Amino acid sequence: QVQLVESGGGSVQAGGSLRLSCAAFGYTYNIFCMGWFRQAPGKEREGVATISTDGDTTYYADSVKGRFTISHDNAKNTLYLQMNSLKPEDTAMYYCAAAFGPFCGLPIYAYKAWGQGTQVTVSS
Asked: Using an 8 Å Cβ cutoff, are 98 and 29 in contact?
């Protein structure tokens, strides 16, 4: 089993920055890919950014390209999401997730382990 614990959410004004962290515990050697997903009230959960654990492959949603950067520290088993130029539409609960198969992309179905989420609120 893998446990994921997010931190770093909060409230910020539009144009500001936040950095999310996700610490992984347990059978982390099985993880092939990790990602950040978000869900706003009344909307479906969507992929934000994903990264292979070797760091070679990243995917970003079009809505965050150029503003968000995903990274992974293998030594610390920690995933990060640097969010710059935040917009009110980025407001959502952000979830960290891990995938164990050969697929590394934004579709949610590939991710089998999930954290509890951390709230990000961007005010205008």
From this structure: no
